[in-house]
Design a protein that fits this description.
The chain is of the alpha+beta class. It has helices at about 35-40, 45-50, 55-80, 140-145, 150-155, 160-180, 210-215, and strands at about 1-5, 20-30, 85-90, 95, 105-115, 115-120, 130-135, 195, 205, 205, 220-225, 230-235, 240-245. Strands 1-13-2-6-5 form a 5-stranded mixed sheet, covered by helices on one side. Helix 1 (about 35-40) packs across helix 3 and helix 2 (about 45-50) packs antiparallel against helix 3 (about 55-80).
Length: about 250
């Protein structure tokens, strides 16, 4: 069973990650330029190059703040300097920590949409997290037909347009969180993952691939991280407490 605490609280000065906890952090990316500049100084040369490749200034800022803050949060758990943290990437582009970066190496995942970023940290299991700003998508029906299961499409078709728009993103974030936790990218057919949207908030992700069907359990939980946003957290099945922290400058 997974226990949730939905209050976004100020974090303690000393961060620890007990084996039975996942920490979810919320932060807003619209920060003063002085702080953006400070975050940029925490980045690696490769990350600064990636930020510079964004065409629009707001995309550069969002990337800089989200990656700089990731380093700051990790340094709090690992008791090391943010600029000394080294990342490596899976074949599907998922960032992980290089071995030997610090005494304790957390497992983490992050997602950002427009001005909101969410992070999930664990000491012993792979979390997956996703967030989206709810907004009109002209191709929502076509996207759903391509990526959602038959049952999910049937649920969406029965909803009023405004509700359909919201639940489209609930489905999307659930699938993204699950796939990110698995670390497989789209090598798993998203149509084979049925998140059973309108049942319980805490559900098994059914299907996905052979290993999932043989009993590898994953749980999904809907998040309401800020007005106008939806999100999802995917964790492996066992007694886990999820704690929610609010980052502020």
């Amino acid at each position: 069973m997974i226990h949730y605490d939905h209050i976004w609280r100020s974090p303690p000065k000393d961060l620890t990650l007990p084996p039975n906890e996942i920490h979810v952090w919320r932060a807003f990316l619209d920060q003063p330029m002085s702080l953006v500049t400070w975050f940029a100084r925490q980045l690696s040369a490769d990350e600064r190059k990636r930020a510079a490749r964004f065409h629009f200034a707001h995309d550069q800022r969002r990337f800089t703040v989200s990656r700089g803050l990731l380093r700051i949060l990790l340094s709090g758990y690992m008791s090391c300097s943010p600029e000394n943290i080294q990342f490596r990437y899976t074949p599907y582009g998922k960032p992980t920590l290089a071995e030997g970066t610090g005494a304790m190496v957390p497992v983490f995942n992050l997602s950002h949409s427009h001005e909101l970023v969410l992070y999930a940290f664990s000491s012993n299991q792979e979390p997956g997290i996703d967030v989206e700003l709810v907004r009109p998508i002209a191709e929502a029906k076509q996207i759903a037909e391509r990526f959602f299961s038959r049952r999910e499409n049937a649920v969406l078709a029965a909803l009023a347009p405004a509700e359909m728009q919201k639940y489209f993103f609930i489905y999307w974030t659930r699938k993204e969180a699950y796939l990110k936790a698995r670390g497989t990218g789209l090598s798993i057919d998203p149509q084979s993952i049925d998140t059973d949207l309108l049942s319980d908030q805490q559900v098994d992700a059914q299907g996905g691939d052979e290993s999932a069907q043989k009993g590898a359990q994953w749980f999904l939980h809907d998040l309401a991280p800020a007005p106008g946003y939806v999100g999802a957290l995917a964790t492996q099945e066992y007694d886990t407490r999820v704690v929610y922290w609010q980052w502020t400058p």
